[in-house]
Amino acid sequence: MALLSAALAGSTLLGFAVVSWFQIYNAKISRLDAQLLNQLMRTSRPPEPERLHPRPELLSFDWGNHTTIPVAALVVDSNSNTLTEFNSLPEDTQVQGLLVKRLQLTPLILPPRERRDSRPFRPDPPPFVTEKTAKAHWRIGVMKSPHSQVAIAVSLQAVNQEMASISNIFLVSIPIALLLIAVGAWLISGGALRPIAQLTGVIQQVTVKGLDQRIPIGTTDVEFVELIQVFNQMLSRLERSFTQASRFSADAAHELKTPLTILQGELERTLQQVDPGSEVQQRLSNLLDEVRRLSGIMRKLLLLSLADAGQMSLYLVGVDMSELLMEMLEDVELLAPHLTVKNHILSGLKVQGDRDLLMQVLQNLLSNAIKYNLADNGWIEISAQQQQNQLHITITNASKDIPASDRDRLFDRFYRGDPARTRQVEGIGLGLSLAREIARAHHGDLTVNSTFPGQTAFTLTLPIGTRG
Predict the structure, then answer these.
(1) Most exposed among 66, 184, 215, 335, judged by the fewest C-beta atoms under 10 Å?
(2) Which class of enzymes does this protein belong to (predicted)?
(3) How many domains does the chain fold into?
């Protein structure tokens, strides 16, 4: 806004300066032409008895401030005999030639009695032209009558000096005016946009942990009060809805925890009482698996609700991630002996974190690397290294290519990439979402990498020495 205001004002001032300059210049030239016409008329009068031709000292121009204007004049009679020749700027020898040329080009003005028509006599003003020599610019006027021909040239040096002074005034005043306009527009636009900047800052803080943010109305302009009121009301509705949703998830998980625990215990006790290998035992085993699956979903939902509310508690201890990865690597070799496992794990990589939760993240990533691997020629590669103050753990596995539309939704809750929700691949679609929330609770992150075709890679980033 400040730049546009300065550009608009600059264009206006520049146009005003150009028009004003030409108006002033034309006014000065008109003033000079009026004096030049007066001198032409005086000089072209018939000579008085006591003198034979006009005297050059009669040529005087009043330009104020006692400024002396160079003048050149040429007066000839009807027979082209020179009566007077005068040049107050003798170093400019070209001006006399200009005067002769203008006398030759200007037609003779006849008095009324020598005109053949009966129209009223209205003598046209003599033509005034501007000519340039090597020394100066001249304003030349010519008047021809039957008894004398007069050509007078007046130097435009004084006019040009005054116009140069006016140009310098414009060159100094316009940039200063533009600077003042730009600064004023910057301050005014900044004050007008300050509520928008406040609104933007609050919007940037609108997360699950910042829904309690509000913009104070008393510190802003009247024009933005209604907008800020609507925005604050929207935040209130979002906060209330999110609090209800989080509370529902947490309450539901708590309420389901006890009956599921009782149900699991009863099924395990009943399973021990039935005959081994019977059909009842098989049904009870299937029911027990489903109950355990529900218990796992309940635990993950409880952790996610705590993460949404910013209340995920961490039991921080020093965790040797190199040792933890090596232990889990042995489990992978036992669970998936058909896969080729490679590792590039540096020793001594330690962080401050919750060991159980970090183990849950790694187990989820390794479990996905096994489940979504290729049936033939499958492989898993684990690398862990420290870069500056961050620990990077990347788990890469052979897999089918993931469509770009699915890559953006891998961390969505309950998203499995299987529209039919079949159980060809075990899972409920909460693992990656929970893993990323755990990583962020440790002030880190979990991302999916852009890899070569035929492979998938996830990178867990954790800060070294972070204390929650």
Answers:
(1) 66
(2) transferase
(3) 3
